[in-house]
Design a protein that fits this description.
- This protein is α+β, with helices and mostly antiparallel strands and 263 residues long.
- It folds into 3 domains: 2-49; 59-101, no CATH class; 102-262, Alpha-Beta Plaits (2-Layer Sandwich).
- 51% of the residues lie in helices and 22% in strands.
- The chain is built from 12 helices and 9 strands.
- It has helices at 2-28, 31-40, 45-49, 61-75, 78-83, 85-92, 95-98, 117-124, 126-146, 166-176, 205-216, 226-232, and strands spanning 104-115, 150-155, 158-163, 185-197, 202-203, 222-225, 238-240, 244-246, 255-262.
- Strands 1, 2, 3, 4, 5, 6, 7, 8 and 9 form a 9-stranded mixed beta sheet that branches.
- A hairpin with an 8-residue loop joins strand 8 and strand 9 (255-262).
- Helix 8 (117-124) runs antiparallel to helix 9 (126-146).
């Protein structure tokens, strides 16, 4: 009986993988539609790349709604005025936030900034700098959402981002290098750990460490802690360089960091 049951489960699993593979192939035929579905969370990028080996979707309905609203507001700012910022924020609240409950949970934090932005502003003027940042933020949003993350806040020419895993954070940080507007270069720092995540902020020691790691990075570089490297494991086409111990301002213990790049 056990053998027959196992054989039946294997057969069902095989059929499911076949069906999922066909669906994924159909979705990939329209790259724009596939990218939009991944960005808002209707399907996961990992599943689209390897159907049958990952869940089709991990985003909750509330998260899908939030990503859709963020995307709409970026592409058509008039959405904010027609729907109202408060309505967008209310629709994106999670249930525990409505109850006022904030618990610590594991997250990965990424900080970015644009090397050379101050000089660019001085040479090109405020209007040009603001236009550059606006274009940059429009390019950043889809990358962050497609990796299951969100933009927590804008910090001048930099951003604070939160992701559900070290893998997602590293892959997004590497992709974000391509969004750096010429002639500037983007640098990013990545760390993970427990933090309190609310609708409009993330609080915890992990945030402070991630910010300091970013300060150690060079323009055009992604720098992560070894905690992120260990959690992410072996990633296709991603290389973690040699680790070094760094003394970070405001952080008591030395932190091991390493550069991350595409192979």
């Amino acid at each position: 009986m056990a053998g027959a049951r196992d054989a039946g489960e294997q057969a069902i699993s095989s059929v499911r993988r076949t069906v999922e593979s066909r669906i994924a192939d159909l979705i990939r035929r329209d790259p724009d539609r596939a990218a939009n579905a991944v960005e808002v969370g209707l399907i996961d990028r990992n599943w689209l790349d390897a159907p049958g080996q990952h869940p089709i979707r991990t985003a909750t309905p509330t998260q899908v709604m939030r990503r859709f609203l963020e995307r709409s507001a970026e592409q058509r700012p008039s959405v904010l005025s027609s729907l109202g910022l408060n309505a967008i924020q209310a629709l994106s609240w999670e249930t525990n936030e409505l109850k006022g409950e904030h618990t610590s949970s594991p997250v990965a934090i990424v900080f970015t900034d644009l090397e050379g932005f101050t000089r660019y502003t001085s040479e090109q003027g405020d209007d040009a700098a603001l236009a550059l940042l606006d274009d940059h933020h429009k390019a950043v949003g889809p990358v962050v959402r497609s990796r299951g993350g969100r933009v927590v806040k804008r910090l001048g020419d930099g951003l604070m981002l939160v992701f559900p895993s070290g893998e997602a954070a590293v892959l997004a940080a590497l992709e974000l290098q391509e969004t750096a507007p010429d002639p500037l270069r983007l640098r990013a720092g990545v760390h993970l750990g427990d933090a309190v995540v609310t609708r409009d902020d993330v609080v915890g020691h992990v945030v402070n460490v991630a910010a300091r790691v970013t300060e150690c990075a060079n323009g055009g570089q992604v720098l992560s802690t070894t905690d992120v490297r260990d959690a992410a494991g072996d990633l296709p086409n991603v290389s973690f360089g040699r680790a070094r111990r760094a003394r970070l301002k405001g952080v008591t213990e030395p932190v091991s960091v390493c550069p991350v790049s595409l192979r």
